[in-house]
Amino acid sequence: MKKIIFTMLIALLVAAVPATMDAKTKKKTTMKHRTEQDARNFSLERKVVGKHMLSLQWISWKYFGTVTIKKEADGTLSCKGEQLARKCKDAEQGNIDNDDYVKLDGKIEIVDKNHLNFTGEIRTKIYHINNGQEVLREGTFNFEATGNRKFWRMFPVLNPADECADYIDIYFK
Length: 173
Description:
The protein has 173 residues and is an alpha+beta fold. 27% of the residues lie in helices and 40% in strands.
């Protein structure tokens, strides 16, 4: 009887050793993966957090606005900025004397290096769109950097008020 109990005990110990080693290996692998993921996230945050140029093609690709993305105390990323039309004479555009703008106010979620999700409000006012009245968009919008672009472009680009394309771009630092 003692021999049977002893044999069973040895068998249980032998069976448990690989499981214990496997659990330790799995824990090390998980921690290594988590550390690598944290490093990637930190690197992406450094790319995203800060001051960026902002543009809407109807206003100007020559005179940019700014948008600031900040890391808040709770870990979320806030996003606030605007581009305002300049009152000036421009050789290509003639006299510019309007109060056009694009304004962003919300939160950013980093999906990957080429893709941000923006949740909040986007306000545009362009003199020749929607009879010059403000267009308010609320919700979640994708900002994507495709191809060799050095900026994230908002998608969908369709302006719901006049069914024209609004190219709202946040440029890399």
